[in-house]
Write a structure and sequence with these properties.
The chain is of the alpha+beta class and 226 residues long. Helices cover 19% and strands 30% of the residues. It has one domain.
């Protein structure tokens, strides 16, 4: 007879906010339910492409023929998925605010804090000539142990579908879009760049484990060439 404690708990996907200097976690957001589907897209950074060279060119893909097989850097990778929150299945203790706290934690991924905004305003009042954009914590998205990557949120849409008597949301679906940050996006030596290299190395290990095909399976022979 199978006992409940013998059933392995599923690994959850989630988001980790790291201090970019010390690398210590500042917040860990565990997604309540793993999304049913993931939409991933990869756009190669081909050196030979000159799609924005003007109407006189050959359009997308035209460019220097000597650069056709060269890459300028890692592919630009983006992810999209839908996450769900449901107070009825999440809380073991009373939740007077519904899922407001969980929604706010996700929304703060795309907002600076009030302290950061006040500091920027103070510098402006003091006549600072140049004010650097506000730096957010380093954001990691995790999908199991084989996919841990630095990301930047590019989209966050929230569809609240149920409320309690105080109009606190108790059920919502969130459309989340993110761009994977590569060494092309981060400065050399940045902790995020090191984490991206580890993510790419994991892809290389997985690719090496894939079974290689044979020319015969493609209906081709091998002589002096194809």
């Amino acid at each position: 007879m199978t006992r409940y404690r013998d059933i392995p708990h599923p690994i959850r996907s989630g988001i980790i906010l790291l201090d970019p200097d010390r690398g210590t976690p500042q917040r860990i957001i565990v997604l309540q339910f793993n999304p049913d589907t993931l939409e991933r897209s990869l756009s190669p950074q081909s050196a030979g492409d000159s799609s924005d060279s003007g109407s006189g060119g050959g359009g997308a893909g035209s460019g220097d023929r000597n650069e056709a097989l060269r890459l300028k850097g890692p592919a630009e990778e983006s992810w999209k998925f839908t996450a769900e929150l449901d107070a009825a299945d999440q809380f073991e203790v009373p939740a007077p605010d519904g899922i407001h706290p969980q929604l706010a934690a996700l929304e703060m991924l795309v907002h600076p804090t009030t302290a950061q905004l006040r500091e920027a305003a103070r510098l402006t009042r003091n006549g600072s000539i140049e004010i650097s954009p506000i730096e957010m914590p380093l954001t990691l998205f995790t999908w199991g142990g084989k996919r841990v990557m630095p990301v930047r949120l590019t989209e966050l849409s929230i569809n609240e579908s149920a409320f309690d008597v105080h109009l606190n949301p108790i059920r919502a679906a969130l459309g989340i879009g993110m761009k994977v940050l590569s060494v092309s996006d981060l400065p050399a030596g940045h902790r995020g760049a090191d984490l991206y290299m580890a993510h790419l190395a994991q892809k290389e290990r997985l690719a090496a484990a894939a079974r290689g095909g044979r020319l015969a399976e493609l209906g081709l022979g091998f002589g002096r060439g194809l």
